[in-house]
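To the wet lab folks,

You asked to see what we're planning to order before we commit. Fair enough. Below is the target structure as tokens, and below that is the sequence we designed to fit it. If anything looks off to you, flag it before the synthesis order goes out.
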């Protein structure tokens, strides 16, 4: 089901199946650069097509396999055929998306072989991935013959999959799972100190299970991810206590604690003294 009547297209492509031509093992049957309407919604059960989507701007939600993902700019969706899912644009800030609808067994096979089936969502993708989508949209606008356009689009889809794999493999090789999770925690704290920590969000972002993440982190740092999150919050609290005139209540609010009493209890359990005593000391 789809509600896209009011969407605007900068590029739109539909593959014209030639008479007597065979159904290839991978075909890009439709593609588009689409500014979605605020009623945009797609729902598929046992989907006959695979989809590859890049979110250029705006926000939306994907529901698949009992999980719900909130998706913003610079996010890629890789959903193979056969899946049950639903995605829709945010009503106040609808998506602009670049997308390919794909048939044939090669696309799901590539996702499996490149270890991209563990998660349908990839956040903060590389410039190489984005360039692949952009090149695909330019091909859609070209007036080349149908066979040539199809060959070029299938090549672009493969290059995007390869770029996603290389980005994930490179990150994992350089700093490992524990290092990636540590970076995720640090980035989250310093971009918004009021936010909490979700191991489930980290699991989806890094495309591994929660259990695998927790085990890797504990082996590397001898503490749980949540304990590390708490110690980083404590470090910030110490800086505020010794370097500013903010009250305990103001510091508590600034660091996202529900109330100053809970903040004080957390601080004392980790540091051994209350925030007030630490400041006076």
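Sequence we intend to order:
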């Amino acid at each position: 089901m789809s509600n896209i009547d009011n969407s605007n297209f900068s590029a739109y492509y539909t593959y014209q199946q030639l008479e007597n031509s065979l159904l290839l093992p991978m075909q890009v049957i439709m593609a588009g650069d689409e500014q979605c309407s605020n009623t945009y919604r797609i729902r598929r059960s046992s989907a006959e097509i695979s989809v590859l989507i890049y979110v250029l701007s705006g926000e939306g939600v994907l529901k698949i396999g009992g999980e719900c993902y909130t998706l913003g700019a610079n996010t890629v969706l890789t959903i193979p055929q056969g899946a049950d899912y639903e995605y829709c644009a945010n009503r106040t800030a609808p998506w602009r998306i670049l997308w390919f609808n794909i048939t044939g067994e090669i696309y799901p096979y590539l996702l499996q072989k490149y270890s991209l089936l563990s998660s349908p969502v990839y956040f903060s993708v590389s410039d190489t991935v984005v360039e692949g989508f952009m090149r695909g949209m330019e091909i859609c606008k070209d007036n080349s013959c149908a066979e040539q356009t199809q060959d070029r689009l299938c090549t672009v889809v493969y290059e995007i999959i390869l770029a996603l794999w290389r980005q994930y493999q490179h990150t994992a090789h350089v700093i490992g799972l524990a290092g990636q999770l540590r970076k995720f925690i640090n980035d989250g704290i310093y971009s918004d100190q009021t936010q909490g920590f979700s191991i489930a969000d980290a699991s989806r972002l890094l495309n591994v299970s929660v259990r695998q993440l927790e085990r890797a982190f504990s082996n590397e740092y001898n503490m749980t991810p949540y304990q590390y999150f708490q110690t980083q919050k404590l470090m910030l609290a110490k800086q505020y206590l010794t370097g500013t005139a903010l009250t305990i209540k103001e510091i508590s609010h600034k660091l996202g604690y529900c109330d100053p009493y809970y903040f004080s209890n957390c601080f004392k359990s980790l540091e051994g003294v209350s925030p007030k005593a630490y400041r006076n000391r």
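Structural context that might help your review: The chain has a mean pLDDT of 85. The chain is about 45% helix and 20% strand.

Thanks,
Computational group
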